[in-house]
């Protein structure tokens, strides 16, 4: 809990630091802030407590989600390269501050015990993201993406808010625990119909944030338009936080209304898997491919929401962690390669820019390939176990056909992930040695190593979750 | 305990050193590095043997496989049987390593050879040390691999590579049976642990499929121990260097099948029909091997068919539940067959790689040690008392006499054939005049000490090996029978035998008469087999090994080749490619279509979202609202 207070203060102090210190220093200080806030988060371990007028609850699950979010933020900051030397158009202090604020929002979303906290957290996160998406002010694509994201995001926020209102109307409470008690003790027949509409609208609102089909349309456009570093932020932190919120609602207080939401959720999950994976096949741009990949990973996660096994929470945590580690590496390498190619080719983010990367940059090629393998779910990487846990949880719940579809779709996934590996290793191309800052390199290897270690020894973290 | 672990560990280390350092290590060092591990392992085994208190000891090394209720530990079992096997493997193994230092001295792949040999010893030790069928299976597969590597050691020659593949594939067929047997054991007993399985059986618990399990395990033994119908790989395996033939294809690996049946005797005892089958397969193999051996002119081929035939005897013994007798024969056979192979190797070495006995002759004076030791080996295998082979073979025959008279008669016939072809080889090689070329004659020499010392030691054991289980009538106390008693079923009471009965007399006649005949025909008449074209009639059929290879080729190999050509050219092309590429194309087309939904138009996006939400609400809530 103290973490969110600290992060808010850190964010504000960041704004002031920007006056006096060079970008490099601010980056390091921000990393330090995140380490401190992670330590503060850990200090709540095993203390299940309510804060802020019973609106905010810390549990071990919420702490785990918060840690994954902060870890992702840590890596994003480490990969940010302090936003170059362009003093006129980039404002690192502000960016870092906004990132810290949005992490506060994300933590609120995983620890809420009150509907309004959920909404506030979601808005803090979303508004911050609209701003960051449009931060490349002179780039038309960035502006377009920000507007698109803002329009569609506020549209769905409306649905979410409406859903919360309807649920309030039916239960006369914003408190999660109260709503839960009422929903479990009342027979479904005696509840007003608008309650079910409310529940579905809340779910839809969150599904938009995790970019599930058919609410995914914004994802490829926004991911592509946003500066890559913020795409990295979006695809890890926003996704994890929204998914944690969705999971806690659906498996928690809405659990008794299983019959209401289960079919739409299945349907959406299958649709997401198909749309995400199949669309990714044709993409020429790595960034866009990663956008569709993030859609398809949302599909796997939604599948497991309904499995309601004891191990489901830890499976989701494991999946989020493995996805985060692999995704940040993929985007990080993309940043380096596209930066190198931007002066040389017309579309620096395409697969063709990666061709021949392994020749002079074997380290980058290896990290990128391992992250692709992990996203594809190949054994000995964390991604394999992530998929394995999710499929086995879902399967033991006797949900057969969606799992079969998911497995088939992950086979399709191999096609487009391996396209990256093929480009890196098998295609001929001229890429000179790319200069990588030390911090960047360390973070890159840390994530890659984490992917491998978790892939060989999954119980290392699975036992903690 | 810790010393025990060294037994398999040392050869593994030897393998690693020679394997990694080859070809940087000099030959002398590579030879020493290769020979020391089996020697030390032998010393440790000997110490284990001397201190053995009769208690079965299980050593748990690690949990290996744990799936649901099934738990398979990586464990070793030390008992009477495994200690005996340890002694044979490490003892004979050491001698053959020593021998190889001389035999392979001029070979470029010296270090590689020793690393393979050490690896073989390692897997063989795992095979006999394992406390459950799964660990045994690792060893089983491992020795098969080493056998493959060593048969094809001189793989520059295509036919040697083919022989290696043949051995491997035939063994795989047997292994499949063995594997099914293990699966059935897991299904019926929920474990592959020897002690659990055998105590379950001894408690009289009803367990299904025992006969099927025993049969499947025996299929494995058929492959590994070269029984009909899976025996044709063994003669071809002679392509490997001679020490390999002695170690793997005579003394140790091929007896793994017998070891396994003895180990699982409790299972086999419960299925008399399978035992019966084992006995008859053994008999048929013994006769077939002996018959083919009659007219072979390649010194190693004769010994190979002789091995096939002797293995048949061992299985015959098992079929009559004479486990001690069979194991006794395993041990004596290890001595005299290793001796004969090494003797043959010594001859081949001296003859500059000539293996045809028609081109030998008169080597007696040039190679006295080889001559004398080979003679002792020949007497031993022919079953002439009081050499080792007599006692062990006689015990099998005695068991058969009480078990099945017809089998016994045929076994006596086989024994007579053995005696004949062994003396034939012996006389053609060492007596008479030299029939080779001038160059070979000039080069003839006795082998170096590293080769003759193993010959002498093995000769001593071939002569005196019978002492291990000297029967009562010869004044012995049947040590091996008492030693193995704890792990074997109660032996059938045979009663005292007299020296002057049919039971005793017939084997003696069968050993002496053919030997005398061979001496007369080849020694005094100086007959030499003619060249390949001159053989006619039934003799030609036998010389051509009853055309079994050709029959297998026609019945199995050709149809499989035709089938695989069909699959490669028709099914693969028309069906697999079509499906695989079709799936790929479909996905790509679908991707292209779905991609078009991503128009970039926000109005359209929002419209689709609203439509979807409306659809979800209506479909989900229609029953509740309407």
Name the descriptors.
heterodimer, A: 465 residues, mainly alpha, two-stranded antiparallel sheet, 1% strand, globular, B: 626 residues, 25 helices
Describe the structure concisely for a colleague.
The complex is a heterodimer of chains A (465) and B (626). Chain A is an all-alpha fold and 465 residues long.
Overview of this structure, please?
- The complex is a heterodimer of chains A (465) and B (626).
- By secondary structure, chain A is mainly alpha-helical.
- Chain A has one domain.
- Chain A has 19 helices and 2 strands.
- Chain B is mainly alpha-helical.
- Helix content of chain B is 72%, strand content 3%.
- Chain B is built from 25 helices and 2 strands.
- Chain B has a two-stranded antiparallel ribbon.
- The radius of gyration of chain B is 29 Å and the shape is globular.
- At the A-B interface, helix 6, helix 8, helix 9 and helix 11 of A face helix 24 and helix 25 of B.
Helix content, binned percent of chain A: over 70%
| Helix-strand category of chain B | mainly alpha
Q: Sheet bearing the most strands of chain B, described? A: 2 strands, antiparallel
Largest sheet of chain A: 2 strands, antiparallel
Distance between the termini of chain A: 19 Å
User: How many β-strand stretches of chain A?
Assistant: 2
Number of E-state strands of chain B = 2
Largest interface, Cβ cutoff 8 Å: A-B, 32 and 25 residues
Shape of chain B: globular
Name the strands of the widest sheet of chain A in spatial order: 1-2
The stretches of 5 or more residues of chain B where confidence is low (pLDDT under 50) are none
Q: How many domains in all of chain A?
A: 1
């Amino acid at each position: 809990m103290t973490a969110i207070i600290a992060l808010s203060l850190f964010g504000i102090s960041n704004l002031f630091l920007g006056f006096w210190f060079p970008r490099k220093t601010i980056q390091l200080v921000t990393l330090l802030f995140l380490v401190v806030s992670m330590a503060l988060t850990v200090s709540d371990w095993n203390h299940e407590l309510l804060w802020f007028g019973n609106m905010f609850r810390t549990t071990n699950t919420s702490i785990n989600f918060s840690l994954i979010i902060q870890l992702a933020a840590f890596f994003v900051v480490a990969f940010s390269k302090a936003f170059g030397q362009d003093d006129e158009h980039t404002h690192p202090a502000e960016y870092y501050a906004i990132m810290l604020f949005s992490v506060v929002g994300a933590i609120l979303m995983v620890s809420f015990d009150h509907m309004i906290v959920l909404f506030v957290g979601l808005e803090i996160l979303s508004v911050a993201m609209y701003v960051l998406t449009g931060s490349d002010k002179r780039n038309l694509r960035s502006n377009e993406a920000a507007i698109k994201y803002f329009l569609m995001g506020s549209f769905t926020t409306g649905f979410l808010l409406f859903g919360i209102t309807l649920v309030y109307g039916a239960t006369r409470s914003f408190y999660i625990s109260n709503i839960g008690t009422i929903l479990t003790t009342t027979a479904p027949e005696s509840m007003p119909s608008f309650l079910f509409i409310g529940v579905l609208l809340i779910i839809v609102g969150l599904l938009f944030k995790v970019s599930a089909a058919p609410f995914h349309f914004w994802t490829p456009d926004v991911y592509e338009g946003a500066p890559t570093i913020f795409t990295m932020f979006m695809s890890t932190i926003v996704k994890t936080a929204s998914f944690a919120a969705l999971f806690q609602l659906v498996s928690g207080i809405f659990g008794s209304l299983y019959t209401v939401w289960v079919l739409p959720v299945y349907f959406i999950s299958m649709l997401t898997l198909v749309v995400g994976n199949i669309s990714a096949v044709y993409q020429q741009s790595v960034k866009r491919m990663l956008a569709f990949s993030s859609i398809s990973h949302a599909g796997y996660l939604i599948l497991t929401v309904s499995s309601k096994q004891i191990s489901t929470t830890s499976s989701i945590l494991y999946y989020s962690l493995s996805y985060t580690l692999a995704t940040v590496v993929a985007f990080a390498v993309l940043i380096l390669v596209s930066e190198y190619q931007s002066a040389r080719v017309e579309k620096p983010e395409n697969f063709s820019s990666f061709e021949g990367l392994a020749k002079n940059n074997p380290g980058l090629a290896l990290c990128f390939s391992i992250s692709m393998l992990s996203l594809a779910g190949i054994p000995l990487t964390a991604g394999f176990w992530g998929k394995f846990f999710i499929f086995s949880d879902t399967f033991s719940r006797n949900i057969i056909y969606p799992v079969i579809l998911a497995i088939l779709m992950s086979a399709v996934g191999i096609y487009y992930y391996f396209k990256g590996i093929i480009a890196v290793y098998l295609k001929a191309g001229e890429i000179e040695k790319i200069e990588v800052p030390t911090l960047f390199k360390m973070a890159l290897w840390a994530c890659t190593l984490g992917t491998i270690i978790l892939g060989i020894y999954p119980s290392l973290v699975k036992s903690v979750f | 305990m810790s010393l025990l672990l060294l037994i398999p560990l040392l050869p593994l280390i030897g393998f690693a050193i020679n394997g990694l350092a080859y070809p940087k290590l000099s030959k002398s060092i590579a030879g020493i590095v290769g020979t020391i591990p089996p020697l030390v392992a032998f010393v440790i085994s000997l110490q284990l043997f001397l201190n053995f208190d009769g208690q079965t000891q299980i050593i748990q090394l690690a949990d290996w496989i744990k799936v649901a209720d099934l738990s398979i530990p990586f464990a070793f079992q030390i008992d009477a049987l495994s200690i005996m096997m340890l002694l044979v493997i490490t003892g004979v193994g050491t001698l053959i390593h020593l021998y190889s230092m001389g035999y392979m001295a001029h070979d470029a792949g010296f270090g590689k050879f020793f690393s393979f040999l050490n690896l073989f010893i390692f897997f063989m030790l795992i095979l006999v040390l394992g406390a459950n069928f799964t660990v045994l299976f690792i060893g089983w597969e491992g020795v098969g691999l080493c056998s493959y590597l060593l048969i094809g050691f001189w793989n520059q020659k295509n036919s040697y590579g083919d022989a290696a593949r043949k051995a491997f594939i035939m063994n795989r067929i047997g292994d499949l049976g063995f594997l099914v047997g293990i699966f059935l054991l897991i299904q019926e007993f929920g474990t592959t642990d020897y002690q659990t399985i055998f105590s379950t059986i001894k408690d009289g618990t009803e367990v299904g499929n025992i006969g099927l399990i025993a049969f499947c395990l025996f299929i494995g033994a058929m492959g590994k121990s070269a029984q009909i119908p899976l025996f044709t790989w063994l003669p071809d395996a002679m392509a490997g260097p001679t020490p390999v033939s002695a170690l793997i294809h005579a003394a140790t690996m091929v007896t793994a099948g017998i070891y396994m049946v003895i180990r699982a005797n409790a299972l086999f005892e419960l299925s008399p029909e399978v035992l019966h089958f084992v006995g008859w397969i053994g008999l048929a193999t013994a006769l077939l091997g002996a018959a083919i051996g009659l007219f072979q002119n390649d010194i190693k081929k004769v010994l190979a068919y002789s091995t096939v035939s002797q293995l048949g005897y061992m299985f015959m013994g098992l079929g009559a539940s004479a486990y001690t007798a069979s194991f006794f024969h395993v041990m004596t056979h290890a001595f005299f067959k290793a001796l004969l192979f090494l003797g043959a190797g010594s001859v081949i070495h001296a003859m500059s790689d000539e293996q045809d006995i028609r081109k030998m002759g008169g080597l007696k004076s040039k190679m006295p040690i080889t001559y004398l030791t080979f003679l002792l080996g020949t007497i031993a295998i022919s079953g002439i008392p009081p050499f080792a082979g007599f006692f062990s073979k006689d015990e099998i025959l005695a068991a058969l006499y009480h078990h099945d008279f017809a089998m016994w008669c045929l076994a006596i016939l086989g024994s007579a054939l053995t005696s004949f072809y062994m003396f034939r080889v012996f006389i053609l090689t060492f007596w008479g005049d030299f029939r080779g070329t001038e160059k070979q004659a000039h080069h003839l020499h006795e082998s170096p000490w590293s080769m003759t010392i193993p010959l002498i030691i093995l000769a001593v054991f071939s002569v005196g090996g019978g002492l291990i289980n000297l029967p009562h009538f010869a004044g012995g106390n049947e040590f091996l029978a008492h030693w193995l008693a704890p792990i074997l079923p109660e032996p059938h009471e045979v009663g005292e035998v007299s020296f002057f009965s049919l039971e005793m007399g017939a084997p003696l006649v069968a050993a002496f008469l053919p030997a005398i005949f061979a001496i007369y025909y080849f020694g005094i008449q100086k007959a030499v087999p003619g060249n390949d074209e001159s053989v006619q009639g039934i003799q030609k059929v036998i010389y051509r090994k009853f055309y079994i290879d050709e029959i297998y080729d026609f019945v199995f190999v050709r149809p499989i080749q035709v089938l695989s050509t069909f699959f490669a050219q028709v099914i693969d092309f028309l069906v697999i490619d079509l499906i695989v590429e079709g799936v790929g194309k479909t996905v790509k087309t679908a991707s292209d279509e779905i991609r078009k939904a991503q128009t970039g138009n926000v109005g359209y996006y929002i419209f689709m979202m609203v439509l979807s939400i409306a659809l979800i609400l209506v479909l989900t809530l229609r029953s509740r609202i309407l």
